[in-house]
Amino acid sequence: MTDTESFAERNWKKAVLSGMADRCPACGQARLFARGLRTAPHCPACGQDWSAQRADDFPAYLVILILGHVLVPIVVAVNIAWDVPLLPQMIAWSLLAIAIAVLMIRPAKGAVIGAQWALRMGGFGKR
User: Fold this and answer.
1) C-alpha angle with apex 119: 109 to 14, nearest 5 degrees?
2) Who contacts 33 (Cβ-Cβ below 8 Å, separation ≥6)?
3) pLDDT at position 6
4) Cβ contacts of residue 112 below 8 Å, gap of 6+?
5) Mean per-residue pLDDT, 40-53
6) Which runs of E-coded beta strand occur in the chain?
7) Which of 25, 62, 92, 122 could link 15 by a cystine bridge, Cβ 3.0 to 4.6 Å?
8) Nearest CA-CA partner of 89 in 97, 105, 99
9) Can you tell me the mean pLDDT for 104-116?
10) Does residue 111 surpass a pLDDT of 50?
11) φ/ψ (deg, to 5) at 41
């Protein structure tokens, strides 16, 4: 089997979507996360070792990037349409940003881990 053939075996779209859904990117059966943002040590269904994943700060970067691009235009539109006092805005926008970020971080980390596995990045490229 050539390197190109072995690379083609892993469908990166399926792996990313499985990771986002908290499923093992390798088999799609078991949960990817044990608790919180900690990944399971290995998949109980297929045995894939998840200790090689190195998502690090990239999921947080993605969440901040996406959240900023979604939330800032909404803040600007609200300020153009209505004259809302500053203090309620500071509280409301901060709470909304925190809530959305908390909801987005786990799917973002799952997507990054799925992409790492599918593209054989880091420890997932071992032969």
Assistant:
1) 65
2) 22, 39, 40, 106, 110
3) 52
4) 19, 55, 58, 59, 62
5) 89
6) 33-35, 38-39
7) 25
8) 97
9) 94
10) yes
11) -60, -35
- Which residues, including other chains, have CB under 8 Å from residue 4's CB and lie 6 or more apart? none
pLDDT of residue 1: 43
Return the amino acid letter for 34: A
Token pair belonging to 86 = 């500053």
Q: Compute the 3-state secondary structure of the chain and give helix, strand, coil in percent, each to the nearest 5.
A: 60, 5, 35
CA 38: distance to chain centroid?
13
**CA-closest candidate to residue 116, choices 46, 39, 5, 35:** 39
CB contact set of 22 (below 8 Å; sequence gap of 6+): 31, 32, 33, 106, 107, 110
Length of the chain: 127
